[in-house]
Amino acid sequence: MIKTRITDFFSVERPIIQGGLMWIARAELTAAVANAGGMGFMTALTFPEPESLRAEIRKCRNMTDKPFGINLTFLPTLTPPDYPAYIRICIEEGIQFIETAGRNPEPYMDQIKSGGIKVLHKCTSVRHAVKAAKIGCDAIGIDGFEAAGHPGEDDVTSLILVPLARDALGDLPLIASGGFADGRGLAGALGLGADGINMGTRFVATQEAQVHSNVKQALIDRSERDTRLIMRTLRNTERVMSNTAVEKVLEIERRAGDTMIDDLIPYVAGRVGKGMLEEGQMEIGTLAAGQCMGLIRDIPTCQELLDRIMDQAEAIIREKYSQLS
Which of 86, 93, 181, 289 could serve as 241's disulfide partner, Cβ 3.0–4.6 Å? Predict the structure, then answer.
């Protein structure tokens, strides 16, 4: 058994985190991760109404008696979600952990902390991680350039970001994200100074993920070379799986003149991506996916996946790290 600051922080058996996954991180997946000894987070903004999140929290509690948390991503939108209402629901339902991402969570920290909730903030740079620590975040997730979704604009990989973040953060619990899908990655992350790993793309290809089978099969069929970076012209870079819609987005971004978000909305809108996940039409929109696709070869249960990761990581630590004489 591998015990770290993260297993102690969350009171879980295994240093493996399932972070926020829009439309996907629901009770079925998060409870399965929790029951397998990891830490799962349901994504609040999957539920348009805060009261719907309350119902999902209660559903998850009926499926597991283990710890789980809520992801709350602060997005730049013309009509922001009612973040205080989501936080109020978390407090009323006794949630102990919130994973924040996107913009600086400082405007909401007082309300979150008033409910005794601990905050894990996901960052894409060391400078943002240091800022998060200063405003009172209790743990940090650091996203390398390999990651799905929004990896920031610095293009620094996990191999560099993780040890730099550890040097900057002292003893604060640290989670490595971006490029992790198996026990080799976990062993490597621990060696770099992390206390655990966060996986997103890998958890989509599990039996409990509530997405169309075409999505899961695509993650098996694609390689590490089958992602693209879109919206770079808007400085809102997103790593997604390559497909027809993505190539159209890149074509628009290559045109002379400034790219406008309205030009891309038909392809990148969340409702289109949701349709892909539900209907399995893999060419109509964009799907966040990391380079770890190259490591995905099957669709296990979460229990099977976490068992395998821990067995592999422990074997590496025992056999490889003990070769010093």
Answer: 289
Please provide the size of the chain in residues.
325
Give which of 238, 237, 203 is closest to 219, Cα–Cα: 203
- Name the residue type at position 113: K
CATH number of 5-208+301-319: 3.20.20.70
Residues 224/292, Cβ–Cβ less than 8 Å: yes
Q: Which pLDDT score, from 0 to 100, does residue 270 have?
A: 79
Query: Measuring CA to CA, which residue among 208, 181, 210 is closest to residue 64?
Result: 208
User: pLDDT (tens digit, 9 = 90+) per residue, 86-111?
Assistant: 999 999 999 999 999 999 999 999 99
**SS3 at position 322:** coil
DSSP one-letter code for 39: E
Domain borders along the chain are 5-208+301-319, 213-291
Residue ranges of E strands in the chain: 16-18, 39-43, 68-74, 97-102, 118-123, 139-143, 174-177, 196-199, 227-230, 238-241
User: What are the residues whose beta carbons fall under 8 Å from the beta carbon of 130, sequence distance 6 or more?
Assistant: 168, 169
Which pLDDT belongs to residue 305? 98
Cα 87 to chain centroid, rounded: 19
